[in-house]
Known about the structure:
Layout: H1 3-16, H2 29-36, H3 40-52, E1 56-59, E2 63-66, H4 77-83, H5 89-114, H6 117-137, H7 141-162, H8 165-182, H9 188-207, H10 211-246
Antiparallel strand pairs: 1-2
Helix pairs in contact: 1-3, 1-4, 2-3, 4-8, 5-7, 5-8, 5-9, 5-10, 6-7, 6-9, 7-8, 9-10
Amino acid sequence: MRLHLQLMNVLLIDIADGVVAPGERLPSESELAAHFGFSRGVAREAIRALEERSIVAVRHGRGATVLDPRSWNLLDEYVVGALLQTSASVEILREFLECRRVLEVEAAGLAALRASERDLNELAAIYARMAASADRATRSGAAEDAYHEADMRFHQAIFDATGNRVLCRTLEPIQRALIAVRKRLADPATRIHTTLPEHQRILKAIVDRDPDEARAAMEAHLSTIGALIHSYSAARQKRALGRQLVG
């Protein structure tokens, strides 16, 4: 990771965790450079990167002021990654799931109606890659990454099969942000072996040109993700309670 992104990520985590609250100003470029041991140029680029993600507003003579969280770019992988390290993680996961339900259930139905033979072959090939890497993914981090890469491509291919160019472009930033999310939901064996048959059901419905079943299959898959988020939330609460009791 480039130096300015390293510094940006440190600042972003502090902001996401409330160390620097909305309306407060970040230290100046020179103060950041001195504190973290970077050059002023690196500090300047880090602040610019925060500004590009709508985390701060920079005013000449006033420096960088943290903006309201409602303005933050939640489709940016760094922003999502920082928020997932805070108490806001469950809320963010649920918002992403809600967004996916709005988009992907209907997209599956449209794909069943509109997919070309080329689209169907592409979906089948991607599913085959997922299946081939599933067993290895529970034992190898590299194989797990390959599985999730194919998983994301599968969902993108469904959007491609709708023939709707706006939908296709809509999913891209969501998928990039979700890279930071997936590994937090259950262990690889549970996550992969639960969801792989669900992808097979979605594929079959689209191949069979059955839009109602495609929507139902996608809704069932996203409900599984919802259950994993619920388990993740319960585990976080249990850990938090444990820390309170120890403290």
